[in-house]
């Protein structure tokens, strides 16, 4: 199981594999609950006709890049379509 000791990344609680169509195998990660998503933040700011604060944008991007780097370094996996 992938355990993150880095405080800026949501903790992975568990993982399991599932089969898709054909011979596809997917790794499913169960993460800790974070009440505010990027989608919700963007939607709320768009509805209010405001920009997302620069600091929030930087923090979201930092967390995203850090998480991808750590996942790639630990497992060597990468999937993009």
Task: Characterise this structure.
- This protein is of the alpha+beta class and 81 residues long.
- It has helices at residues 38-47, 54-75; strands at 12-19, 25-31.
- The chain has one domain (12-75).
- It is built from 2 helices and 2 strands, in the order ββαα.
- Strands 1-2 form a two-stranded antiparallel ribbon.
- A hairpin with a 5-residue loop joins strand 1 (12-19) and strand 2.
- It starts with 11 loop residues before the first strand and ends in a 6-residue tail after the last helix.
- The mean pLDDT is 78.
Give the topology, please.
Blueprint: E1 12-19, E2 25-31, H1 38-47, H2 54-75
Antiparallel strand pairs: 1-2
């Amino acid at each position: 199981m992938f355990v993150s000791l880095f405080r800026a990344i949501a903790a992975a609680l568990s993982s399991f594999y599932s089969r898709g169509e054909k011979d596809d195998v997917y790794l499913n990660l169960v993460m800790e609950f974070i009440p505010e998503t990027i989608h919700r933040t963007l939607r709320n700011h768009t509805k209010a006709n405001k920009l997302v604060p620069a600091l929030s944008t930087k923090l979201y991007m930092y967390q995203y890049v850090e998480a991808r780097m750590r996942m790639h370094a630990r497992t060597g996996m990468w999937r993009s379509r």
